[in-house]
Amino acid sequence: MMLDRGLVLMSDTRTNSGVDNISTFRKMYRWNIPGERIITLMTAGNLATTQAVVSQLEERNKAPAERHNSLLEAPTMFQVATIVGNLLQDIITERAADNGQNAASGTFSASIIVAGQIKGMEPRLFLIYPEGNFIEASFDTPFFQIGETKYGRPILIRGYDRAMTFEAAVKLLCVSFDSTVKANLSVGMPLDLLVLENDKFAPLHERRIEAGDPYYQSISDSWGEALRHALDGLPNYALGEESKLKDAAA
């Protein structure tokens, strides 16, 4: 999500091919040149596809001949998003062709969030689709989600404030993820957290939140209790009240 002070990013680490094949893999990657740029990717979808994208980006960063396609050489964050989008589309198309499928079948589908800042420019946040095209975050759409989104999104919509502190944003993301983890087996601990302050070009805060983390557990417990108190405080529904009103109207 985008804040006035910078960017706050969080991802889970669970991948699965059914309930009997659940694994832990990192879904957040970052590259930075101190004082010049920081770029972060978060991935969702087919694991082989997203790992191929990240591996090729790593190779390009190391190979002088590929500098024109390197995230560390791209002149703008828009160009960074273009490079990642083109590579994602190429890999999906290639994998589908190798397996005698159409790229639109979705077997090798993946989506990516690109976030970061290059010196002299504003921080930017992009959502890249499997087709390689992308959209950019704005004041109207200040945060993006990929993967399993429906359980945590309502919390973000209700709680987000662009002027909120980094600490409040982390708390909001923890609540959002906690709701998703409790509702869907495809999302699970640990969580990776990254906080990027404007014009720093290095992580302000970075950590992995493991299962059983005291802070995360306190947020989970407190949120559940707060919901129960909020429900108790709402007006009670009176059974039979509707029929009484109909009789009075008649």
Q: Would you write up a description of this structure?
A:
This protein is an alpha+beta fold. It has a single domain (6-249), classed as Aminohydrolase, N-terminal nucleophile (Ntn) domain (Glutamine Phosphoribosylpyrophosphate, subunit 1, domain 1, 4-Layer Sandwich), CATH 3.60.20. Helices cover 37% and strands 22% of the residues. The protein has helices spanning 47-62, 77-98, 153-159, 166-183, 214-233, 241-249, and strands at residues 6-11, 14-16, 22-24, 28-33, 37-45, 110-118, 124-128, 134-136, 191-197, 205-209. The chain has a five-stranded antiparallel beta sheet, with helices on one face. The protein has a three-stranded antiparallel beta sheet with strand order 1-9-10, with helices on one face. A hairpin with a 5-residue loop joins β6 and β7. The longest helix is centred in the middle third of the chain and has 22 residues, at 77-98. It is globular, with a radius of gyration of 21 Å. The model has no long low-confidence stretch (mean pLDDT 93).
Compact summary:
This protein has helices at 47-62, 77-98, 153-159, 166-183, 214-233, 241-249; strands spanning 6-11, 14-16, 22-24, 28-33, 37-45, 110-118, 124-128, 134-136, 191-197, 205-209. With 250 residues, the chain is of the alpha+beta class.
Q: Determine the mean pLDDT.
A: 93
Number of strands: 10
CATH superfamily: Aminohydrolase, N-terminal nucleophile (Ntn) domain
CATH class: Alpha Beta
| Structural shape | globular
